[in-house]
Amino acid sequence: MASSSSYSNPPCAACKFLRRKCLPGCIFAPYFPPEEPQKFANVHKIFGASNVSKLLNEILPHQREDAVNSLAYEAEARLKDPVYGCVGAISVLQRQVLHLQKELDATNADLMRYTGSETSYLNQMTAQFGRMGRGGGGASFNPNSGFPAATYSSQWNNDSNSSEHGGNGSM
Amino acid sequence: MASTRCAACKYLRRRCPSDCIFSLYFPSNNPQRFAYVHKIFGASNVGKMLQDLPVHRRADAADSLYYEAHCRIKDPVYGCVGIINILHQEIHNVQCQIAKIQAEIAFIGTHAQSDQQLQIAPNLDPNFLAEQKGLSNSFDDSSTWFF
Q1: How far is B96 from chain A (nearest CA, A)?
Q2: How far is B1 from chain A (nearest CA, A)?
Q3: Band (B145; pLDDT cuts 50, 70, 90)
Q4: CA A7 to CA A13: how far, in whole Å?
Q5: Which stretch of A30-34, A127-131, A138-142, B18-22 has the lowest confidence by average pLDDT?
Q6: pLDDT in tens, B25-53
Q7: Chains A and B: how many Cβ contacts under 8 Å?
Q8: Which residue has the higher pLDDT, B70 or B139?
Q9: What Pfam families does the record point to (chain B) (predicted)?
């Protein structure tokens, strides 16, 4: 008599963790392979299997892999930093953006100074050659080298860091 | 008698005990805060996470959980990770812009130096003055100036 489980797929990491039978239509199976048990363990600890399942069911199938990977990333970040999770990384990156923006402004100012001094130097040279030649005129010099004033707009200006909170702490 | 239940216990339709873990961080005047956190993490997980933290860290943890939940509800596929990606891109873009401008400054600086040398050298050329006398309209000719 052939065994009913002789040709069955191995259970996915989720079903192994949850100690249940991994059915053919298991929502977790494509994204939690049995070789990566920690991935589901982390996601389960932070979000819970039921919440992950609901979330995946609300997303189109072709987006589920990205969703699972981002959930796994967030879960791991939260386990490493139970207070801030990946929000801590966002704070660090936002500070870095602000710092770089100041550096960009300073570098732009340097460029303006250079192009300003270059223009006055060339005007002097032009005037000098003009006196040696016909005593007037001068070549035109366009200090605009084609580099636009570097500006950028941040798509994320802390507007999601909503002030709607009643907690005592602050981020 | 007015209800003094926190937003969590109101949402979960239960009595709010005096030592409720949620009450300090999920006040009744902001029901959305707990609703979001519950939707993404689940009340039980949030309770456990807060219990595992020292009291003075719980407020920040509740805030960051709300922020994460809010991001995940706005963007169910990427959540906070989407924001991290955007910020990495911004950083890269700005760094490129800074590098470009610094290269431009370096170019102008080098150029100005070599032009200063050109200004001194022609005076030593005996043919130079003769050439200059011949220059009348050529200042308008941009080909004379080869920056």
Answers
A1: 10
A2: 23
A3: very low
A4: 18
A5: A138-142
A6: 999 999 999 999 999 999 999 999 999 99
A7: 212
A8: B70
A9: LOB
In sequence order, what are the residues at sequence separation of 6 or more whose Cβ sits closer than 8 angstroms to the Cβ of residue B104?
A111, A145, A147
Residue A43, pLDDT > 70, answer yes
Q: Indicate if the alpha-carbon torsion angle B80, B82, B88, B93 is positive or negative.
A: negative
Residues of chain A with Cβ-Cβ distance to B114 below 8 Å are none
- C-alpha angle B23/B28/B30, rounded to 5°? 110
Residue type, A157: N
| Interface membership of A100 toward B (CB under 8 Å) | yes
- In degrees, rounded to 5, the angle at the alpha carbon of residue B10 between the alpha carbons of residues B7 and B12 is 105
Is the ipTM reported for this complex over the cut 0.85? no
DSSP code, position A149: P
CB contact under 8 Å between B101 and A150, yes or no, is yes
Q: Which residues of B touch A100 (CB under 8 A)?
A: 91, 94-95, 98
Q: Is the pLDDT of residue B116 over 90?
A: no
